[in-house]
């Protein structure tokens, strides 16, 4: 493969100008091949509260214009270590969740091929299920590192099995999850019952609750996460509402008392050296954002995820 093509040169075209691709990276059609792809799945009809995450992919792209090629926190050059490209958005039927899930599965399978790593920008958390099905085809039961205020292991809403509150229960039922190595991080807020926590644990998810951050130093939490994941292939699912509403107002199901951007970015950096094989970034809803606060946080989450990918993709 030839040398990777990186972002548009900001000394030639100012960062507020030019095409709106993620981090001003080339489009997939404009490179000979790519090791890692950022693509959008604008689907939000699985939400139970505020809609709007369908506008997430382009909001994250627009908010990613300030990203630069060198990541000093990891001494990494995420866009030079491998070819990263923007694969655009998947066309998904907003009126039929079953069809949407099948379209997302087909799209992820086709894009990832045999070796590419996908970073999928949603869209609501419903999309995690089809993405995990495709990961399972390649890796078998996968260690899921799930950042969220919510468990998302509920059963049904109004009898509907596929929503943004149920992806990880469905994934666990389908045998997609590595029961010994999966974990929620950032859980907080009121629940429907005490059973919610017990059932989530039975589905294979240990949990770092937000209140744990008040009692343990960040390094201890990062060690807990790394120990839980071990050397397994890891899929990272980031629901932006894991951040406190002060750091991510632009989301559909906000809960008070969340993580700061600095805490989340530091934890993601702590994944460096693990076998991260794919990720998604969901629930960015720009209608509730201000001055791109949420979009910028999400863009930086994506940047740190790309920085910890094993060089050369999965
Ligand atoms: N934002 C996500 N992914 N899930 C929210 C579920 C909220 C609820 O069941 O009340
Ligand atoms: Zn959530
Ligand atoms: Zn979620």
Automatic annotation (TrEMBL):
Enzyme class: hydrolase
Name of one Pfam family that matches: Arginase
Keyword hit for Translocase: no
EC number(s) stated in the UniProt entry for this protein: 3.5.3.11
Organism, as annotated: Saccharopolyspora griseoalba
Identification of the protein by name: Agmatinase
CDD domains, per the entry: Agmatinase_PAH (cd11592)
Domain CRIB: residue ranges: 164-186
Gene3D superfamilies: Ureohydrolase domain (3.40.800.10)
UniProt KW keywords: Hydrolase, Metal-binding
Family named by the database record: Belongs to the arginase family. Agmatinase subfamily.
InterPro entries cross-referenced by the UniProt entry: Agmatinase-rel, CRIB_dom, Ureohydrolase, Ureohydrolase_dom_sf, Ureohydrolase_Mn_BS
One MF annotation (Gene Ontology) recorded for this entry: agmatinase activity
């Amino acid at each position: 493969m030839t040398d990777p093509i990186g972002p548009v040169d900001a000394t030639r075209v100012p960062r507020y100008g030019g095409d709106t691709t993620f981090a001003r990276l080339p489009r997939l059609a404009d490179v000979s091949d790519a090791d890692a792809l950022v693509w959008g799945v604008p689907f939000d009809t699985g939400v139970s509260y505020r809609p709007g995450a369908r506008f997430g992919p382009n909001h994250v792209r627009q908010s990613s214009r300030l990203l630069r090629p060198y990541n000093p926190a990891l001494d990494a050059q995420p866009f030079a270590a491998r070819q990263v490209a923007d694969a655009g958005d998947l066309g998904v039927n907003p009126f039929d969740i079953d069809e949407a899930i099948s379209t997302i599965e087909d799209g992820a399978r086709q894009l990832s091929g045999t070796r590419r790593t996908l970073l999928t920008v949603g869209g609501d958390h419903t999309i995690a299920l089809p993405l995990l099905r495709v990961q399972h085809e390649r890796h078998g039961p996968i260690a899921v590192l799930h950042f969220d205020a919510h468990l998302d292991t509920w059963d049904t809403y109004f009898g509907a099995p596929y929503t943004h509150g149920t992806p990880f229960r469905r994934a666990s039922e389908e045998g997609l999850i590595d029961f010994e190595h999966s974990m929620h991080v950032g859980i907080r807020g009121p629940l429907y019952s005490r059973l919610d926590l017990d059932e989530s644990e039975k589905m294979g998810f240990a949990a770092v609750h937000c209140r744990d951050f008040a009692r343990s130093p960040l390094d201890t939490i990062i060690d807990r996460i790394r120990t839980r994941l071990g050397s397994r292939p890891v899929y990272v699912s980031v629901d932006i509402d894991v951040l406190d509403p002060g750091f991510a107002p632009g989301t559909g199901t906000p809960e008070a008392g969340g993580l700061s951007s600095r805490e989340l970015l530091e934890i993601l950096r702590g994944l460096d050296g693990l076998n991260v094989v794919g990720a998604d970034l969901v629930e960015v809803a720009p209608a509730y954002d201000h001055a791109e606060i949420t979009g910028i946080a999400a863009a930086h989450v994506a940047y740190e995820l790309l920085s910890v990918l094993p060089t050369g993709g999965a």
